[in-house]
Amino acid sequence: MKKLVQMDAKGHRKFGIRDSIAYAAGDLGCNMSFALKGTMALFWTQVMGMGLWYSLLLVIVQFWDAINDPLIGTIIDADRRKYKRNKFLAYIWFGSIGLIVGGACCFLPFPQAPVWAKFIIFIAGYVIWDAFYTIANVPYGSLLSLISNVPADRASLSAWRSIGSMVGNMLPMVILPFIIYNPDKSLNGYKVFLAALIMGVLGFICFQFMIKNTEIRVETEVKVNEDQPKFNVFKALKNFACNRPAVGATIAAMGMFIGMQGAATAVSVVFQIYFKNPKISGIVQLFAMIPIVVFTPLARNMVTKYGKKELSVVGAICSIIGGLGLFIITPNNTGLDLVIYILCQLIYSLGLGIYSTVSWAMMGDAIDYNEWKTGRREEGVVYSLHSFFRKLAQGVGPAVALVIMNSLGYVNNAVDEFGNAKIDVTLLSWDVAVNLRVLVAALFLVAAIMQFVGLALIYNLDKKTLAKMNKDLGRDVEADAVPSAVSQDA
Predict the structure, then answer these.
(1) CATH class of 17-216+232-477+481-485
(2) pTM
(3) How confident is the model at residue 452 (pLDDT cuts 50, 70, 90)?
């Protein structure tokens, strides 16, 4: 017998685990495409032989990011057409198709091509991928504030999004090192390209599952022929700059991605030449995610009891402690060195897990904050600018890391069979390996400090302020486990 779907007073399906799993599938789809970005630096320096040219390329494409994210965000906000279900879902569907091709375009394996052709291949591939990623990712992030306006529900969605992101990162993190490396520990570009194509298809499937199972409960779309003031992009940008929660959460996210993406290239090389086993890098990073897995089921109740800002600040402090511990290096790289590295990564990941499980709920609150202060809901602009700065960290972080790595001796004078310059990790000295090991610790520590500054010093929606905002906006807070405390805080 078919189970009856429970409906709320407004005729929507009641919020439940189906919503959380569907929302998690969306970020799983995003990360099926995005997870390979950590491999991009290795591919373009070790396979395509671009060396420091790759750092320049990353900076160049950030100009496209500067146009791409806010442009698409404003287009989505200004779109007044009537869609069958929801305009955000329509944009996600279109973006998910493009990601199948866009991701693979970033890994076209033509090492014999001249440098100018490699410039074109990279820039064109990145522009295509980034455009479709933004088309899918910006409305996906905005959906959180539309699926439910109950704080506990949003915390649940944010936690499950973290699970989707984590799984989307874990699968390629663990599996890819066993596939894309040759026996001599060098990277196989053709296998990377094939992996990118397959992950694009898997991402598309995840997005379709999310779209089919998403219920929009917060109606904010503009009715056809409804008189609305003309959209002003400059005013929206000014509103974002004045939105302290959005700015604080964005700085924290930039720090997180400097740690995740900026250090990714250095971490991969450290496992190639310091620990001398690149295939275990994914397993070690997977092990470091255990604290995130453990904390995620606890997130909803802990948010209700302590508050999102309060929890995330504690997480940032844990990450700082773990980052400091990563500087501990034993002489001659004994087995103890790897043990210390893993333990410190566990502490660092505990802090990251606490923050990541509430990070998207914090951005949902920042969107509400914009409405609270300005009277306008601008999900697309707020989230797209947040996404832009995240991606800025994802691009500038690796570029700066590569420049520092070059100064530490990462780039050498090896050439491939076509006479093109390339990086041969087998020629790097032990001193270079140690220097890169220290660089990894420094990048993680800087990332943790940025998270602390953004969350503790700038983000201003503590539990009491959040309760007052929700009350002023008429948000439903009845799902909180301790309503008396919420009432008192308000």
Answers:
(1) mainly alpha
(2) 0.65
(3) very high
